[in-house]
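thought: fold this chain, then report.
action: predict
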Amino acid sequence: MLDIGFSELLLTGAVALVVVGPKRLPVLTRTVGTLMGRAQRYVAEVKSDIQRQMELEELKKVQESVKGLGESIESSVNDVKKEVDSFSGSVSTAFTEDMSEVDVYDTRFGTYISAQPRSWMQEQADNRLRDRVKARMRRRYLTKKPRFE
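observation:
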């Protein structure tokens, strides 16, 4: 640090003993020690501040790169969203053409909101039809068939 050897330190101590005297030498060494400790703490603080500033600069660079990446991803997402919206528009026009058939079914069987309530006979007929379809599906798909005939 200061590049002082043992002989130089011994010479400085002898001069201090002669100049200050034996009574005030312990007080002087204590004061010099506290001042050296403060100086070392100050140097350590400055080093840590410089280190933090360097880390902040690195983080700012990383943040800028991430922000640029986020903007590019956002523009890509917006492009995809525009394509999906145009596709969904074409699909919705195709479905609206088929809705006329669905409207006929809904009107016929009364499943739309303002339909007249169905009679008990209509509900029973629908239930019987549903039960027959379920039974047919069970027979067809739940029976075990040999794999190879």
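thought: worth noting. The two ends are 95 Å apart (CA to CA).
final: tokens above.
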